[in-house]
Each structure stands twice: as structure tokens, then as C-alpha cells.
# Entry
Amino acid sequence: MNATAVGIEDKVDKLLDVLNEDIDRIRESLSYLNEIRALVIKRDDAALSRLLESIQAESNGYQDHELKRCNLRAALADALGCDARQVTLSMLEAVLPSGGKTRVTRMKALLEPLVKELKKEHLSVALLLSRCAAFNSLLLKSIFALGSRDTVTYSSNGASKKQAGAAFLNLQL
# Structure
């Protein structure tokens, strides 16, 4: 094995170590998304606020990790004579000898389902939050439109009645 091949193998090993950390971060993100969903449904604002602060505090470490991965991809691209955007696990599978190829294939098999699940969970939480925002908006519009003359309300037996100049609040001392 020549020095270039050894250098590439060393860079691939470092990249696989970084990707192992990514797997841990993805699992942690999935846990956070589940916790966010549960706290939104429970309407536990205090716990949700604490969780979001915790996530924000950890985001700086993620930026450093992302930079480390990008630098490793750039170093691999230089060693392989290609652009950094071309350095993917699939590309590494194609160019590495059998030992390195096996490790990259295993890593790819671990990452793909996790990333797919993360995308699904992220979309699920985004849709929940979107629906909550739409519901809150509709609720506020209905509350603040109660005093308008065109508002129709319904009694418990289903009879409708128009609001005739009703005030938003009725305060009696």
C-alpha cells in the first residue's frame, strides 16, 4: 500500500468517526423532536422553553462538528483529486478497496434509515406546529370578532343569533 492510499484510509477512518458522532446527534435530535411534540400536546410551556434553551446551547457544538466534517471531506477530495461536493459515501464505496468499502457500506446502512426517520419526524413536528399556529390564529380571530355586528353565534341547542352591538367584555362590579 502506498503513502497516498494510507493517507486516504486514515482520512476515511476520521470521517467515519465523525459520522458515528453524527449518528449519535441524529438519535438525540429524534429524541428532542419526540419530546417537543409531547410538550406541545401537553401544553407544558415551561418545560418546552427549557428544552429549547438546551437545544440552542448545544447548537454551537454542532457547528464545530459540521466544520470538522466539511474539512475532512475537503481533505479527502484533495487526496482523491475531485471536488468536495463529490465526496459522498456512495463515491467512497466505489473508489475504496474492499476493507474500506465494507466500513463505508456499514456506515451508509446505519445513516440512511436514521436520516429518513429524522426527515419524517421533523416534518411531523413542523406540521403539528403549523396546525397549532393556524388554530391559535383562528381562535384569536373568533375571539376578537365577537363584538362585531356581523358575528353569528350559536346556542347549545343550535339556534343562531346575530350579535347586535355586543361588547367584547361585560364587566360588572
In short: The mean pLDDT is 85.
